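Appendix B, record 7
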Amino acid sequence: MRTVEFETIPTVPTADEVLDRSLRRAAAKRKLKINVDRANEEFVRAVAKAIHDKLKSVVSSFPSFERLPPFYQEVAEILVSLDRLKKSLGAVTWAADQVWVIGSGYTRSMRSAEDTGPKRRQAVARIASIVHQIEDDLIYLNEARNLLRKLPHVSEDEFTVVVAGFPNVGKSSFIRLVSTADPEIAAYPFTTKGVIVGHRKIGKRDRIQFIDTPGVLERPANERNPIERQAVSAIINTADIVLFILDASEHCGYSLDDQVRLLDEIRRLVDVPVVTVVNKADIRGIEGYPAMSTLTGEGVEEVLDLLLTFRKEATKTSLREPPQPETQE
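Structure tokens (predicted):
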């Protein structure tokens, strides 16, 4: 089960879909009334209620973003722009309220009208106009829903290893070897298009969480694309430890100097340990750094054991921390 409710957001209907569904339901209720005037009044009431309730359900299906963990807030901002999303949700709320006001006003006026047919048609026309005004907002919300529901579940309660480095250095290969994640592996940069999460059981009950980030390029933050900014967000907000992978062979397409500059930047970004490992050591290693080859598997278990030592130390530290004294007013 996900920590956030993105996956449960239903498809957001278009304006025409909202209207068609509501008009069909109202027509069915209208047929139950023998008196024509009462039938017209019931039709308007039913249309207004159905549209009001549907639009309100669209708004309530989205989570309260202010209450989400920082990782989800930042990634949602990157993917869909929270300000734009909130404006669309506000527009849909406004439309729902307007439809209710229009429907209520016309049903009251129809009780004393000599001919309710024209009023029924006027009410439906005004309601349809309101709904069509938010057509773009409904389309945008559905597009946002389709993006957000693909976000992986990132637990705040599990020891988390964020795997970072330049594109094509072997991050996805490492994650696949040590966890349940099954990222796409390919010999070209930017294969990882989003954040991938995997887990590895430790003992009977515990497990650790691995986050495979997209390749982060060593360039100013304002020049990074959305995929790169997702990676930075994952590093800052979720890591208990960062595993930074270097490719000393430079087969990834980036110089070792550039990779080291990115390593230094990440060290400045986080307040957690950064473990640096050289991959593709079957081609070239660097003295003084742990080495592995995700191609041959050599050294991978040793790197995993090294990461687990940090987890054990973090567990011991949390157990040693004394309870905080209560502050007195």
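Remarks on this record: The CA atoms of residues 75 and 230 lie 6 Å apart. The two ends are 40 Å apart (CA to CA).
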